[in-house]
């Protein structure tokens, strides 16, 4: 290896005196050449601060100044802001996507912090909805991106409106029911979406473009692949590195599309086990009889498979109530003498009725911890929130 005896200029932070690792002469020459060319040019679409903010990304030949311009004008949505969604949101906002909508139904808990990189201890302490905590954090990271956090559960009734007005959808969900719903919306509207999932040390991702590639129904309903990730993070755990790797591949695909380079998309199902080091990508053919992208039968979007109560992690269920606004303050007053640890912020209310803990959102949804039994959930909801 050739040792360099000077500082590597564009990896150096202001005031840094730390010596940087040696790089090959080839890498150095490519980088410096790119720097001199791109920085010398004029880019009227961005002001000086934006030009500086995205300078390293614009130096990258795959994006360049024109790609950055397209990225700055792009609109994307992430459904689910858990580990993958949070990591993807972080990368997209730093990269300068123009607008990002983050839809999430859940709130921050201490067990999230090991891998969900947007959140911190104060978010968990304040039981902030993830969409709210993510929006706040992301605004402080890049104030030039329009960010909209939406506290909601994606359902057949709201999916099309919640996913309206963006050209790309990203999967940050933790269940196949919601993924098939996203797939239905994407295929119906002819927009691409990027599937991503991780459990334990294993993960998968694929950019799906209606009409051009297989869709999720081609992949999972036609028998060409197994469901693969039936286990969940709540049953067999997950480590942070695989989440970050998969979301990085997912966001690389997003950047290709949003910066106007769809021909660079992998078009394959990428998978990796970061513990064993096994990594592969496989081609997935469209299924000629696919329910969604061939027959245009949008079963999930038409609501035929949406139960009112669903499993939601280990030992908890979600109650999808009819959309109705709850007065959380009034509920707080009513529950105070009946329940333990009644706590409320502007977005949700939580209380304990041992051995259960219920979190109720302003839209009428609730998550009940301590049972897998839908009948118990229905009964407790009716008793404490109202039938
Ligand atoms: Zn299909």
Structure report:
By secondary structure, the chain is an alpha/beta fold. Helices cover 34% and strands 19% of the residues. β9 (309-311) and β10 form a beta hairpin. The longest helix is centred in the middle third of the chain and has 19 residues, at 240-258. The protein is globular, with a radius of gyration of 23 Å. It binds zinc ion (ZN). Zinc ion is lined by residues 214-215, 217-218, 286-287, 290, 292-293.
What is the quaternary state of this protein? single chain
Q: Which regions are unreliable across 5 or more consecutive residues at pLDDT < 50? A: 1-43, 224-229
Instruction: Tell me the total number of β-strands.
Output: 14
Strand content: 15-25%
Q: State the distance separating the first and last CA atoms.
A: 71 Å
Query: Tell me about the biggest sheet?
Result: 8 strands, mixed
Shape verdict:
globular
**Fraction of residues in helix:** 25-40%
Number of helices: 14
Bound molecules: zinc ion
Which strand order spans the largest sheet, edge to edge or round the barrel?
3-2-1-4-5-6-7-8
Question: What characteristics describe this protein?
Answer:
387 residues; alpha/beta; 8-stranded mixed beta sheet; 6-stranded antiparallel beta sheet; 14 helices; 34% helix; globular; disordered N terminus; binds zinc ion
Write the layout of secondary structure elements.
Blueprint: H1 25-40, H2 48-53, H3 55-59, H4 64-72, E1 75-79, H5 83-95, E2 99-104, H6 121-125, H7 130-141, E3 146-151, H8 159-162, E4 168-171, H9 176-189, E5 193-199, E6 202-208, H10 216-220, H11 233-236, H12 240-258, E7 268-273, E8 278-283, E9 309-311, E10 316-319, H13 328-335, E11 340-344, E12 348-353, E13 356-361, E14 366-369, H14 374-384
Parallel strand pairs: 1-2, 1-4, 2-3, 4-5
Antiparallel strand pairs: 5-6, 6-7, 7-8, 9-10, 10-14, 11-12, 12-13, 13-14
The structure holds zinc ion.
The site of zinc ion has 9 residues, from helix 10.
């Amino acid at each position: 290896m050739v040792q360099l005896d000077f500082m590597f200029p564009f990896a150096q932070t202001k005031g840094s005196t730390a010596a940087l690792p040696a790089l090959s002469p080839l890498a150095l020459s490519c980088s410096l050449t790119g720097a001199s060319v791109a920085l010398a040019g004029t880019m009227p679409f961005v002001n000086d601060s934006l030009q500086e903010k995205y300078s390293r990304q614009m130096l990258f030949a795959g994006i360049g100044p024109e790609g950055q311009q397209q990225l700055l004008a792009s609109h994307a949505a992430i459904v689910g802001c858990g580990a993958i969604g949070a990591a993807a949101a972080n990368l997209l906002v730093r990269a300068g996507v123009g607008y990002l909508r983050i839809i999430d139904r859940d709130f921050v808990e201490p067990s999230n912090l090991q891998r969900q990189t947007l959140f911190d201890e104060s978010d968990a302490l304040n039981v902030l909805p993830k969409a709210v905590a993510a929006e706040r954090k992301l605004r402080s990271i890049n104030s030039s991106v329009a960010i909209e956090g939406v506290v909601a559960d994606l359902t057949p009734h709201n999916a099309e409106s919640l996913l309206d007005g963006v050209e790309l959808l990203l999967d940050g969900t933790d269940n196949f029911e919601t993924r098939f719903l996203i797939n239905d919306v994407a295929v119906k509207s002819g927009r691409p979406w990027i599937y991503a999932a991780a459990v334990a040390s294993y993960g998968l991702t694929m950019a799906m473009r209606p009409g051009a590639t297989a869709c999720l129904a081609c992949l999972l309903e036609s028998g060409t692949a197994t469901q693969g990730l039936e286990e969940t993070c709540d049953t067999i755990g997950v480590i942070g590195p695989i989440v970050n790797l998969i979301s990085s591949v997912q966001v690389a695909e997003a950047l290709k599309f949003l910066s106007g380079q769809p021909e660079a998309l992998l078009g394959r199902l990428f998978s990796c086990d970061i513990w064993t080091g096994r990594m592969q990508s496989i081609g997935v053919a469209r299924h000629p009889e696919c329910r969604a992208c061939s027959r245009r039968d949008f079963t999930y979007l038409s609501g035929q498979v949406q139960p009112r109560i669903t499993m939601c992690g280990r030992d908890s269920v979600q109650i999808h109530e009819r959309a109705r606004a709850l007065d959380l303050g009034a509920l707080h007053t009513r529950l105070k003498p009946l329940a333990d640890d009644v706590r409320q912020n502007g977005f949700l209310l939580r209380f304990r009725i041992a051995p259960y803990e219920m979190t109720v959102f302003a839209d009428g949804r609730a998550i009940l911890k301590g049972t897998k039994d839908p009948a118990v959930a229905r009964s407790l909801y009716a008793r404490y929130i109202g039938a």
